Inverse folding.
């Protein structure tokens, strides 16, 4: 400990290290830890009228969490959110894998820059507007229905937005790049010679990918899946814009809690969502055998 | 007979075309709608070409207020996140301590959590601790919580490549800690700091999830877009999207031209 | 250029023990380096010489003892407040600055005006034989030029002592030899005290006024001039580490008047006994290869060995002859090639001899085994 202090002072000076510790300390304590703790505190307190807060009724309780089990609607939505997010993640992985590989190991020169720019442009356009674009396509009078009507495949417009399909479509589109870039980063460091060597030894393309590319890209796959799942499960814009009353999302329940000033319930559900993401992160780290340092790159 | 190579090439080619059609076609539709006279945002039927929706957009004082708020929030997020990211990256790259890995986990945790959780917890914290209800300040705090993490990772990547004996040499030649920092460390980290600032600005400008819960009754541009899109949808939003796309493409072209010019110089 | 004020450097009972490390990096170091001296610390890698240099520079504080520069205790005085300047092994030039900015950096930190800084930088570039490169980028310089810029940068702050941490190790052989002469000249011209650390004995022997040899466990073995170090090593480590040497395991039989007689596996040897070893002690007899010659007629003051020629290696200016006694006690002798001498044949039995004053008997301590 003494050595650490000396080392810190030697490198940054007393004032410097205090400044660094103060800055980082403010971030960790006032922006990361305390807000989480206060949210946890809220989540274990009952929702009471203002004058009863701090009164005899204001005791710690599991009530807010229990609602998830007692309220059937909430429970169904929660489970739906999980599997729909998994679908978004898996779909994104399949759509993005080839383009990431192409970008990392095949494309060169001008074509490479063109693809990169092509990927980045949609990424810079607001998430809400990207989702809105799908509203134009999937609505009753949208491009897709108009198209199908014109070529006489259907007689009446289909209500694409009735189920969860539209929300899932919109999310895959909106979060696709959070899958591409981690995959690309991981594949980029793969030695092209390994692929050539395997090819030379007679391995087929599926085998090369299964035995060489995928094992190498594991950290990237893990990161891409974590980011996409987290964004999907935590998305509020996509269900708000593309959903219908029948395709409610868990985040929308949280939002409603806050609209009705039931912060305690909202905090408890936020904790549930955070817990869900944590479990997903840990299972990804286990499945792909990667550590946190590889993830946060 | 067609060889398997040609088949593979065709497959890859059509995949690429499909992928980019998927990526860009929605944006094309969105832009086209901005010029359709129809009061409902739709591609067909085409009722006539107009710039009217841009006029409607520019006449909306709410939009301008939201835009100004977005700039204010983004400005402060940059001012807060870049120094935090810098301090944290110095701490993590320069000092060896036992709890380093757990500490690192805490610092990157906001990046792995859904934005709405950060928004909610920030909102609750400032309300409870300082009786500050949601507003621009809480939005700035919520966004900075995770944007600082991005800045830290970016700056760390460069800080790890730093040759520390340069600092030793500067000390040895009589520089104070402040001078070493300003003359040696900071100039080395400058490119990463600029990238971090740009990224922080864009992240803030784009952010919806965290901001939605933290900002109370104020509006940034994404919040404004969100509320417009949820209530009465007008093609004015398409006009806005069109402007976004134009700015982005211009930015990409300028960047690419500059990059090529830089490449030729070398 | 007499603006450099030389100051004595005293290293008194200095020990250094890194926290968490099982053994001390430096033990009981005592050296008095005089103003204007070119002093080298020579030792194998890991002997703590870089630690010692960083202690003098002020990057570290010793766990024991004190370092005084010009009578002043340097304890708790940071590197930026000491009258020292260091030349780092990797030079640590500021890559984002020009050559002039590098050289003038120390002056800038002291608030010297831009005009004066420019002038000083030019002066120093002249001094290190590198005029006119002030506006170049550091990355445009060659290895040797970078070296000179680093030295100029160190000298710019007018230090009492310049600390050099193996600065030549990155250069190729030819440039390295050239820079030795150049470094020595710069030191003579400026009169600044140089403290130089190296594991290369060639560097240490050719440049230094005095050399301190350090052993792998962080002790000073001997401090002496180059010729004394070579001709009169005081410990087995020095005898073994500096130059090539033959060693014979032995036991002291009799000792008197600075001489002693020892018994080896092939008979008795007489030699100088600088460590005052007494009868019965284990000793190593060191004999340089070049002092051994083929016995022509017996002289009483010489040691002789009957041995067999194993191999002969002709190296141009000299010839190395590999010998052993009954298949054991391998040793070598080295003879000048004057063009006329005949060398013994392989496998022939010969008698060789060497003077007793060229035989050094030293206690069997830690040896350097390269």
């Amino acid at each position: 400990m003494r050595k650490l202090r000396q080392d810190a002072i030697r490198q940054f000076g007393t004032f410097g290290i205090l400044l660094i510790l103060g800055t980082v300390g403010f971030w960790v304590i006032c922006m990361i830890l305390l807000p989480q703790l206060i949210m946890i505190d809220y989540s274990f307190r009952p929702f009471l009228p203002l004058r009863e807060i701090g009164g005899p009724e204001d005791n710690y309780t599991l009530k807010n969490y229990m609602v998830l089990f007692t309220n059937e609607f909430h429970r169904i939505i929660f489970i739906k959110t999980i599997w729909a997010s998994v679908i978004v993640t898996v779909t994104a992985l399949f759509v993005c894998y080839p383009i990431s590989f192409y970008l990392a190991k095949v494309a060169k020169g001008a074509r490479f820059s063109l693809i990169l720019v092509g990927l980045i442009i949609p990424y810079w356009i607001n998430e809400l507007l990207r989702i809105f674009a799908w509203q134009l396509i999937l609505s009753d009078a949208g491009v897709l229905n108009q198209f199908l009507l014109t070529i006489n495949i259907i007689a009446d417009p289909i209500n694409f937005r009735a189920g969860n399909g539209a929300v899932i479509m919109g999310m895959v589109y909106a979060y696709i790049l959070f899958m591409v870039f981690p995959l690309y980063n991981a594949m980029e460091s793969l030695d092209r010679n390994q692929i050539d060597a395997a090819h030379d030894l007679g391995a087929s393309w599926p085998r090369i990918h299964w035995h060489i590319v995928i094992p190498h890209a594991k950290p990237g796959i893990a990161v891409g899946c974590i980011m996409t799942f987290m964004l999907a499960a935590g998305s509020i814009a996509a269900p708000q814009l593309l959903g219908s009353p029948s395709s409610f999302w868990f985040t929308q329940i949280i939002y409603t809690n806050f609209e009705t000033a039931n912060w305690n319930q909202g905090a408890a559900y936020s904790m549930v969502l955070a817990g869900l993401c944590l479990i997903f992160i840990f299972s990804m780290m286990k499945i792909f055998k990667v550590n946190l340092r590889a993830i946060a790159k | 007979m067609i060889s398997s190579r040609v088949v593979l090439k065709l497959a890859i080619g059509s995949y690429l075309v499909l992928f980019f059609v998927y990526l860009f076609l929605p944006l094309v539709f969105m832009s086209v709608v901005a010029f359709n006279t129809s009061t409902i945002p739709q591609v067909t039927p085409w009722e006539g070409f107009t710039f009217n929706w841009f006029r409607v957009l520019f006449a909306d004082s709410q939009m301008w207020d939201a835009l100004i708020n977005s700039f204010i929030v983004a400005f402060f997020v940059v001012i807060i996140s870049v120094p935090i990211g810098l301090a944290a990256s110095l701490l993590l790259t320069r000092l060896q301590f036992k709890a380093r890995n757990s500490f690192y986990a805490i610092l990157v945790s906001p990046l792995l959590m859904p934005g709405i959780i950060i928004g909610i917890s920030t909102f609750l914290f400032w309300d409870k601790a300082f009786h500050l209800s949601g507003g621009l300040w809480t939005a700035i705090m919520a966004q900075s919580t995770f944007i600082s993490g991005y800045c830290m990772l970016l700056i760390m990547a460069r800080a790890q490549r730093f040759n520390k004996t340069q600092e030793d040499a500067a000390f040895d030649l009589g520089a104070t800690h402040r001078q070493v920092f300003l003359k040696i460390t900071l100039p080395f980290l400058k490119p990463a700091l600029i990238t971090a600032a740009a990224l922080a600005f864009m992240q803030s400008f784009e952010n919806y999830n965290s901001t939605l819960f933290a900002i109370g009754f104020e509006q940034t541009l994404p919040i404004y877009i969100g509320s417009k899109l949820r209530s009465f949808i007008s093609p004015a939003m398409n006009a806005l999207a069109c402007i976004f796309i134009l700015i982005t493409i211009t930015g990409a072209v300028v960047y690419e031209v500059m990059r090529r010019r830089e490449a030729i110089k070398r | 250029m007499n603006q450099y004020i030389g100051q004595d450097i005293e290293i008194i009972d200095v020990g250094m023990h890194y926290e968490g490390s099982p053994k001390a990096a430096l033990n009981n170091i005592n050296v008095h380096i005089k103003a204007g001296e070119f002093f080298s610390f020579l030792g194998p890698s890991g002997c703590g010489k870089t630690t010692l240099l960083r202690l003098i520079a002020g990057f570290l504080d010793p766990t024991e003892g004190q370092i005084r520069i010009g009578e002043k205790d340097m304890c708790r005085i940071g590197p930026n407040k000491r009258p020292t300047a260091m030349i780092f092994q990797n030079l640590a030039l500021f890559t984002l600055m020009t050559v002039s900015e590098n050289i003038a950096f120390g002056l800038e930190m002291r608030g010297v005006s831009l005009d004066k800084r420019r002038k000083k930088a030019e002066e120093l570039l002249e001094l290190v034989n590198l005029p006119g490169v002030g506006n170049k980028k550091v990355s445009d310089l060659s290895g040797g030029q970078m070296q000179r810029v680093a030295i100029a940068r160190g000298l710019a702050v007018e230090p009492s002592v310049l600390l050099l941490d193996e600065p030549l190790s990155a250069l190729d052989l030819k440039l390295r030899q050239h820079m030795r002469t150049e470094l020595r000249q710069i030191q003579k011209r400026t009169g600044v005290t140089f403290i130089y650390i190296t594991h290369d004995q060639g560097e240490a022997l050719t440049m230094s006024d005095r050399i301190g040899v350090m052993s792998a466990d962080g002790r000073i073995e001997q401090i002496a001039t180059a010729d004394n170090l070579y001709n009169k090593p005081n410990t087995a480590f020095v005898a073994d580490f500096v130059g090539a040497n033959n060693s014979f395991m032995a036991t002291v039989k009799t000792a008197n008047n600075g001489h002693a007689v020892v018994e080896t596996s092939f008979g008795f040897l007489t030699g100088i006994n600088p460590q005052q070893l007494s009868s019965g002690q284990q000793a190593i007899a060191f004999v340089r290869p070049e002092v051994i010659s083929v016995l022509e007629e017996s002289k009483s003051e010489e040691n002789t060995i009957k041995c067999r020629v194993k191999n002969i290696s002709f190296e141009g200016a000299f010839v190395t002859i590999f010998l052993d006694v009954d298949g054991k006690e391998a040793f070598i002798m080295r003879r000048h090639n004057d063009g006329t001498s005949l060398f013994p044949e392989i496998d022939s039995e010969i008698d060789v001899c060497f003077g007793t004053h060229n035989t050094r008997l030293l206690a069997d301590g830690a040896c350097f085994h390269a």
Observations:
- Chain A touches chain B through 87 residues (CB under 8 Å).
- DSSP finds 13 helices and no strands in chain A.
- The domain at 64-296 of chain A is CATH 1.10.3720.10 (MetI-like fold).
